[in-house]
Amino acid sequence: MKPANNTTDSLNGPEGTPPRVGESLGRDAWRQFRKNRVANFSLYFLISILLLAVFTPVLPLQSPQVQHLGDKKRGIPSKQFRAPNLQPHRLEMVDAESTRTPLSKVISDGNSTSDPILQIWNDPGRLDQLLIRVRLAIFGDWSMPSICGSDHLGRDILSRLFWGARVSLAVGIIAALVSLVIGVLYGAVAGFQGGSLDNLMMRFVDVLYSVPFIFVVIFLVTILSEESIKQTLLTYGVDQITIFYIVIGAIYWLTMARVVRGQVISIKNELFVESARACGASHTSILIRHIIPNVISVVIVYLTLTIPSVMLFEAFLSFLGLGVEPPNVSWGLLANDGIQAITPIRIHWWLVLFPGLALSTTLLALNFLGDGLRDALDPKMNNR
Amino acid sequence: MISFLIKRSLWMLFTLWIVFTVSFFLMRAVPGGPFAGERKVSPEVERNLRARYDLDAPLHQQYLKNLLRTASGDLGPSFKLADFTVNEILGQGFPVSASLGILALVFACTLGVAAGVASAIYRNSWIDVGMMLAATIGVAVPNFVLASLAVLLFVFIWPLFPAGGWGELQHLILPSICLGAPFAAYIARLTRTGMLDVLGHDYVRTARAKGLSPYQVITRHALPIALMPVVSYLGPATAGILTGSLVLERIFAIPGMGSHFIDAATQRDYTLAMGAVLLYTLLLYVMNTLVDVAYWVIDPRVKLG
Question: Which domains does chain A possess?
């Protein structure tokens, strides 16, 4: 692949063809990408999902964790396994005597011992607390009705889907980035050094390729979730979900490393690398400033294809009860809740359908986006 | 051929050794050991238990002893299921998982190849568009979502199949369809691309020109070449089916190797988990080698390396 700003080749095209005005690789790819309607739609869809996930605390949703088990004696209705409905809902606090007070009143009274926001939402960070306050200022106690139904503890599915999206997407993006860093560095070093080091490094990748990783990871997660190890890691500030990011990222870098190595080998003898060397650039700076920027397009394509597989893997582990742990929610966990709640007597279809739909549409959009980007960035198809 | 198989076996042993070593030391790194549960046992009992499971020797001796024992094919006693050896548990689970996996693979290949050939022949018709749309969706939808919906639809709303369990053919159909569906979708896409590529070649035109029926042209001349990518996909597909069976065995309550492995993982039965990982590695290696050999048999240009 040519460096992004090298346009001389296309100016002096093969004999007989009129010279073309050079265009940067990025702009050309973007133009190609705009032509692909499905990929474009997927891109907008994913951006809106991402924005909704980021701004979930601002949306007028019910609490993702307050249980509505009801109390027959006091006439408080239970909300367990409610089918999708449009009944209005208000945020409220229930105290030990089962008296219900609207959340806004609790906050304005200010005599509650602990922060009511911390009780209704699951341990929100600083920023999330701020966003929740914004939400309370805009919408007050009003929240969306349970249009996706509620689960076995009376929790609102819609709200859990949104909060779950944050975890699922975060795992997907962060773990893919971890794999990106490892894969690009590993592949670039192997390809750039060449020789016996390259041989050794790629043999290592081959060996890892033939290990069924999912089983090893499950084994690893089991050991890392041992109570005492968990505590030890927590003292270093590493919690369950961070381990999760790292472990998943650490197994998805193999393909990335191979692809990057191939690309690096094909460009390391180009003229611009040689001139950089002639100018006295060190190996590290050649690698970082000249070679890696030129493999970025391929890396982006593989990144968009890695994100769905990572998200799928997270969902898979959470589904098996080995991934994200309550009170955190993720789509895989919700799907598992759904399948646990299936009984022959009452069919709680909404518990199965909505998490499955959320996960599937997102994965589908990511796949379309990855395919579209690959078509747009594929240099073989550039001279259409 | 022989040297290829020998080389492969050596690499396989090397990989298994690495998996064994890493798992062994990870297992031993867990503080407290497997008997530090909620229920405290008296020191004497614990000493006996440790002696029974060879936990009282120095680490390198334990390692050597375990390595030799594992190499002879004995995976040792299960930590959590008393009176069972890991070999017995895996031996019970393996046939169940194997029949599920093989049925799923057969289903994936037949449906995938049929759909792929049909879309390539009726290119750009509604059959093609519909099937490829289905294939795209099939690749993206996770198998547990598919299985959950299938259970909802075909077990409870329209009771065609039993909800779960094991023993009859009926128990096998729905899980293996759900397990095979994503791979059927992928194989359909591969077959379609392969067929479209091959149908444009000169020799296919020659076959048509000499008066062969369309059926013969496709089955005798086009399909074997078009299926090459599918054959090489069978290796990764096996890996995927092994993984997928973890989830499906759980959803459909099938007592296979996957269920045992997940139970072992959640109950921290380290020997069983390690045995399963080793067995999965072995299976994957054997399958990949078979795929390579099959490739070599089909296409004489391919060199085994």
Answer: 44-55+156-383 (1.10.3720.10), 59-143 (no CATH)
